[in-house]
Queue: 4 jobs
Job 1
Amino acid sequence: MSDYLILDLKQHPKYMLEFQRVLQLIEKSNDALKENYRNLNPHNFERFTTLIKDGKIMAFSALQIDEQKWFPETGRAITRAWKDDSLRVIGKFSDGDESVFRNYNIPDQLEHAKKIGLKTIFISRESKPRAFQNWLDGVNSVNNTNFEILPIQYNVCGNICPVPESCVQWIAIHEIIPGGKEHWIKSMSEFCINST
């Protein structure tokens, strides 16, 4: 049984004031990715998985669908991920803490993805593919998933030129329906960046 209340923040406006408090906290922090959280609006995402404990937001991440950037019937999981300092050891994808994203956010977003008929979900990361794979091994073990990092980096921002460095990311695919990985590779071939 979880110590957290797990919800889609869009469906629970009573926590929006607390969400704004968290965004202000991030803005004042030295988080290298704080630009990602400026003007963040949960309503711009398919699902905005939020963990609440004692009335406080402890972590959040989103499931994003964007057919302009990726092919239909796919979702980007664990985007705009944030967790409270009390849950951090080294970074967002470290496995020495409670692994809230692995244990709570991914199962919530995966269940929603299946419910709305997505074929594939992916998680992306700019750097450190080996550490990313180690974290994914834990994700796969806990969630009975098959996330696998593709050997080529992709532009996850869609058809823009020049491609910003932050858009070049390692992709880990989980097939909800068999054939999703092959469909991703075929549909996203124009967005390949390089190989390992």
Job 2
Amino acid sequence: MSQSPSSPSPSDSDTLGSRENFFDVENGGYQPTDADEETVGHVEKPGITWESYVAGTILRQNPDADLYCPVCAYELPEDQQRHVRLSDPEDYVPPAEVERQRERRTPDGDSELIEWTETRYTDHRRHRYCPECSTIVWGGILSDVPRESFLAVVDEVLAAVGHVPPGRKRDLRDAADARKQKGVSDQSNVEQLLVELEHGLDD
């Protein structure tokens, strides 16, 4: 992982899921903002920052992390809200079959109606779905993972940034561990770690 923005080629910059988009700051991509105040639990924030995008992508690669249905968690009546684990991303949105018809002239000058079925694909991406409300989801609410698993993610992030002195790595790890034990969500925690890697720890 590098702190320096890379400059993707035009052919890569718009690629769906391209990792180069993590660092596409110069082209108006995921602009970093001032660090948000620490928050306990999951909160909904308007827009997305570079740190948020990268943190979410890193944490989704953790095999211990689950994704929950946003509809069941937020959009049901309050007394029915719950966390329901989404399916694995194994299915595609089924293609739609559309009945088409048109009229054409025959060599005899008569008209005839031609009918056929046209298959239309709605989206090429695999999706997750909620087993309880059947909502199709691209994304979902990222769950927190146990402390040991989270610190392993922190260690991977710090190891990927080769220029950080060992003493500062220990301080950054300890700060992330302290936030974890205070109840800060994993995504907010990794976002703050990325901010601290760029700007340093707060006094």
Job 3
Amino acid sequence: MFKDVLTNPSEHKPDDFIYLVHGLLPYDGNEITPEDVGREISIIKTPNEFYRASMIGRMNEASAKQRLGWCGGELYRMFTFGDVGLILNPASDENIKIAWYCGLGSPNEPEKLRSFVERYKYRIVEPLCIFTKSTGLPDDILGDNEIIIEGDPATEIQGVFYRNSDQAYNDARMVQDVASEILQSNLPIIQLPNIRISTLPSAVFMIFMAQRARNLQDFINSVAIETL
């Protein structure tokens, strides 16, 4: 379901791509370090470890129809957890334990995240639902989604992404160097558009926030799908 629609960043097309991305956030709150990169790669590659990701992409009318069967025009979602991170291709769809069309507020601590997965696992919606039901504008911070994945040594790290700033670019180059050395692979760097903080009129903003709350309640009330 997910692997079938992902595109490869080594063949990046600005108006036709779908990526599963894992943002890198500094552990000390200051800056991303090589140690952070190595730690995150280890989690991505280790069974029974879990990490958060999001699905992003941009498809013109033709590619949206071809890739996702969508006949409603362009699809565009660009929210990521962090301005720099890794582009992934999971070993299997079975590694995806949760996938929903809004941020879930899942915990940062590994043990608490593991418990969160155990409680809510297999609440999964298809990629088209993620692109079309996320709240807010396509490039707005409200338009988020959350996917929780189990580590696997066969998961591919296919590239590095960043948003357009000097610091983010420098961080991305460092991530590229460290990850390429660990993986013995020359990873491409992909620049993404900047994410916006909502500047909507307050009444419209409140409508979006109410919908976001309903999306989260839908997740809590949903029934897990059958185990793959």
Job 4
Amino acid sequence: MSCNPELLEWYEACLQGEKGEKGEKGEKGEKGEKESIEITCVIYNNVKNRGIGKGYDDFEMMDNMVEYCGQTKGRSDYLIRAKETLYLEKHGYSQEYTYIGLVVEIVDKMITPSGVPNRYILKIDDKHIHNGYKSGDILSEIPGIKKGRGSCWSKRSSLIRLGFEEKGNFTSGIIPVKLRK
């Protein structure tokens, strides 16, 4: 019986206590060693926002590029950094977020007048696997998390599934994170 060499390498790394492609280490660099990727922020994009009331007009991903509108006041926009930010989407009025991938490049940033969100063109690596989740996986609800108005249960569940805990305001679309201990 033969085994995929990459799968075997990942399994051995897990046995040694490293997380490999499923966690902090990330993908292989040019020389074959694993380069360290430290995730510091998660973007939550509600794609249902189509210019209703707040000036938002977020578009779904096409060719690994997405147009994302930052926050209305831009307070946390500075947290969006290439190779440090994960991107999640929620379509329509679905309850749970979908993991899309790692932001690998900020292709363009359009600064807008005060009160109108800045616009970003982000290049997403949809091959990036984080904590066992790959692009398109739904980050389902964790039983026991308090639900209700203002509880942000969907964001809390997705952060726990991705192996993080929050460091900032949960009502924001851009949340700073740190690894769970």
